[in-house]
Amino acid sequence: MERFFAIVNPAAGGGRSAKLAGPALERLRKGGLEVDEVTTGAPGDAVHLARDAYVRGYRRFLAVGGDGTGHEILNGIFGCATIAQHAGAERRAAQGATAERAAGDRVAMGFLPLGTGNSFLRDYTREGAKASLQALLERRTRTIDLMRLTHSAGEMYSFNLVSVGFTANVGALTNRHFKPFGHLGYLLGVFVRLAQLRPFTFAVRCDDDQEWDRRPCLFLTFNNSAYTGGTMWIAPSADPSDGLIEYVHWGPIGRFAALRMLPTIYDGRHMQHPQASRRAVRHVEFNMPAAVDVMIDGEVLALQCRALDIVPAAVDVYI
C-alpha cells in the first residue's frame, strides 16, 4: 500500500503536537502524499493502531509526536511482523519454499518530531520537523538497524537506546513528575536522583565473553543512536546503520563528581573520564534475578532483561 498511516499523539510536547500536527500533515498532502490519520487517546494506543494498520496492508507509517510515539509504532509493526514471519516461515518450510521476507513487506517510517525528547533524529539533523517534512516530500530514506530486547515477558524493539541504572531512574522520575517541563524536567530528575545516588551492579556479557561483567556502575547504556534526553550525547560513537550496538559502561563516581561531569554529557566529553568505557557488540546477555527500571527510547518500564540483539537494516526511515 502506497498510502501513509499517520499516528498522532496529541499529548506529545505538552500538547504542542495537537496544535502542529494538522498543518504538518496538510503540507504533506499538498506535496502529493496520501495520508490516513488516526489519533491516540492513551499510552499504548499507537502499538495497537500500528499493528492493525500493518495487518491491513500499510507499510508506510508516520510517527507524529515524540520518541515514545515512534517506539510504540515500531513495536506494533515488528511485533505483528515477527508473528507473521514465524507463521509464514512454517508454511513455506512445509512447502519446501524459502523463508525470505517478501520485498513488499519492507516497512518505511517517517517522523514528525513534535514531542519532548526527539532524540533519535538528532543523529542526522538539528532541524527536526522541518528536515523530516522535506525528506518525506522528497521520498528520501535511509536504512537503520533496530535493537531487539528479550525479557521475561516477551520481546521489545528499540531504535534509540536501552539503558539501566541512573539514566533509567532519572527517566522514571521525570516521566512521573516532570515530563511537562521538557528538557528542564529531565534536568530536575537528574538533580533529584543525584541527591539519592548509589552505585549499581548489573551482570552482563557480550558476544563471545565467557565471564559475567559485574563491575559497579552509575549506568549502562546500549545504544543504536547517539543522543538521549533530547540533547545528551550519551554515545558519541553510535551509528544507527552499522549493524552494531554501542555499549557504554560509566562509573561509579560520587554525586559531586557526577554533578561536575553533567555538562560533559551534552558534548561527549564524559567518555574521556577514566570511569567510562565503550565497545561495539552484536549480542548482550543479562543475568537479572528480578525486574529493574529500564529506559527504552525515552520510556521507562520495569523489566527482567535476558538478551539484547541487533537487527541490521530492519527499517527505512525518511530523513
Could you give a quick summary of the protein structure above?
The protein is an alpha+beta fold. It has helices at residues 16-30, 45-55, 67-95, 129-137, 166-178, 183-195, 255-261; strands spanning 4-8, 35-39, 60-65, 108-113, 141-151, 154-158, 161-165, 200-201, 203-206, 216-217, 219-223, 245-250, 276-281, 283-287, 292-296, 299-303, 305-318.
Strand content: 25-35%
Oligomer: single chain
Major sheet = 9 strands, mixed
Helix content: 25-40%
Q: How far apart are the termini?
A: 20 Å
How many DSSP E strands? Answer: 17
Which SSEs are present, and which pair or pack?
Elements: E1 4-8, H1 16-30, E2 35-39, H2 45-55, E3 60-65, H3 67-95, E4 108-113, H4 129-137, E5 141-151, E6 154-158, E7 161-165, H5 166-178, H6 183-195, E8 200-201, E9 203-206, E10 216-217, E11 219-223, E12 245-250, H7 255-261, E13 276-281, E14 283-287, E15 292-296, E16 299-303, E17 305-318
Parallel strand pairs: 1-2, 1-3, 3-4, 4-17
Antiparallel strand pairs: 5-6, 5-17, 7-11, 7-15, 8-10, 9-14, 11-12, 12-13, 14-17, 15-16
Helix pairs in contact: 2-3, 5-6
Question: Overview of this structure, please?
Answer:
The chain contains 7 helices and 17 strands. It has 319 residues and is an alpha+beta fold. The strands form 3 sheets. Strands 1, 2, 3, 4, 5, 6, 9, 14 and 17 form a 9-stranded mixed sheet that branches. A 6-stranded antiparallel sheet has the order 13-12-11-7-15-16, covered by helices on one side. Strands 8-10 form a two-stranded antiparallel sheet. Strand 5 (141-151) and strand 6 (154-158) form a beta hairpin. It is globular. Mean pLDDT is 88; it is low at 83-102.
